[in-house]
Amino acid sequence: MIFTRLLDKQRLAMTKLLMGVAALSVGTAAGFYLSLRLKRRAAELDQLERLIDTLMVKIRFSHTQTVRLIEELAESEAYPNLDFLELTLERCSQGEEFPLAWKKAVSESNTAINDEEKELALSIGTFLGKSDVEGQLALLAAQKQAVSARLKLARDEYQRKAPMYRSVSALVGAGAGIILL
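Structure (tokenized):
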């Protein structure tokens, strides 16, 4: 009987210890998730800025049709986080007009950028192929400036908040783990 009680106490202690370790792990994982989300947002904005640069060069020198231009960019490995490029192509191949396909693709894309930044990406599709070369270049230059400003903010936010998210989440997990003990 004494042996059974001792065994029950050991099981209870082991269960509490495992729950504490699980709480610490969950807290730490949550912090790393939030930190990685900030990093992904900055990476996506960086790729969007480079996409605009590439669009400007291609529009200025190649005079390629809009859908063909997006096809070239989607095939490139330079924009792995901009899944809306492939989604746009899929929609265009199904017969949708480019501006609508772009709008739906950007709206449906799996992205870490916020709504304001998504609006910047959406607006690109509204004027591509709609005006002369100089008009498109001027609009893309304005978009690039806006994206660059958002990119700077995203990088600053990552530098400021990512370490805090990781630390505070680990501390919250450790606190929960101690309470469970």
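Helices lie at 2-61, 66-75, 84-93, 98-108, 115-127, 133-180. Residues 8 and 36 are 41 Å apart (CA to CA).
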